[in-house]
Amino acid sequence: MGKYAHTVHVSASIEITEEVSGAVRERRESLRLSQNDAAARAGLSAGIWNMLENGRRESIRARTAKQIAEALGWTPDSIERLARGEEPVEAMPERPAVYASTADGAPLSERELAIVKSAVTEALAQIKREQGVCNVWTKARWATDSASGALNAD
To answer: Which structural domain range is residue 118 located in?
Structure first.
């Protein structure tokens, strides 16, 4: 080899079929994400995401497929599985101690989550100020009602 030998890295590509595009679109919609939000979660441009969902991409790199799968809450190999005609696999969620969602199970937006966090933080501060352990359930219920009221006020 010469003085300027180069290493070439070949990245496997994954074929994007109609089934893959449709499954990605269906999953994104079930999560109530816009294309922009899904693309942001995956670290991709909205244009790439749109092309993927609308069948205007013939293939994507394995790394991109992993990013898309993880943004949709699937295991990293789920896009490859779809391309082989298999079902995607739901990732085990890394849930916080408390999982916040709407009544129908959809995740809260960042804004809604901030409102809930603020209400819960205030409720915990109130409990700490009172140093009362006598009726924690009532206070926890108050925190829930406060968060709900704050969300409905906006």
So the answer is: 110-153
